[in-house]
Amino acid sequence: GWVCLVCLGKKTYCTGTLRSNRKNNPTSVIKKKLTTGESISKYTEEGICVTKWKDRREVMTISSEFDGELVEATNRRGNVKIKPNQIVQYNKYMSGIDRQDQMMAYYPCGRKALRWYKKIGIHFIQICMLNSYLLYTKNIKKISYYDYRLSVIENN
What are the beta bridge partners of residue 74? Predict the structure, then answer.
């Protein structure tokens, strides 16, 4: 939350995801139990909006730029859903490391018992796998990440 305040003071606006266990999060937002499609927003005195919305799981966002107003959003398949404006805008401009983290989280390989250097090695292999998948789908053929991983495993 303080990053948003610093940015807001410099007339720079930001929107991002927020962990629910962060200090100074509004308890009324964190403790609220939501049903699918429902959202709750709370504003600070400075105009920063914290929103929690539930789709398949609960997602928290913080924004000094957008409000928690519900808007219609169309996905790639043409389905229309009602989502908070923060979520729509965040997804529209999300790229780089956020997208990479999202894709890598689908198939986690980390284990607690591994030494740190082995974890780093596995992480680099996962990054290489994801990068090769992105190049493959961009230049050759569109397939799911799951099918791509299976084909790499089967062809080794």
Answer: 80
CB 50 within 8 A of CB 41: yes
94, with CB counted inside 10 A (0-12, 13-18, 19+), is middle
Q: Give the strands of the sheet with 39-43, arranged side by side.
A: 15-17, 58-63, 49-54, 39-43
CA distances from 98 to 33, 79, 94, 101 (A): 26, 23, 6, 5
Structure tokens at 60: 């928290």
User: Tokens representing 75?
Assistant: 């996905």
Residue 52 contacts residue 32 (beta carbons within 8 Å): yes
Per-residue pLDDT reduced to its tens digit, 32-80: 788 888 888 887 777 788 888 888 888 888 887 787 778 888 777 788 8
Would the pTM count as exceeding 0.70? no
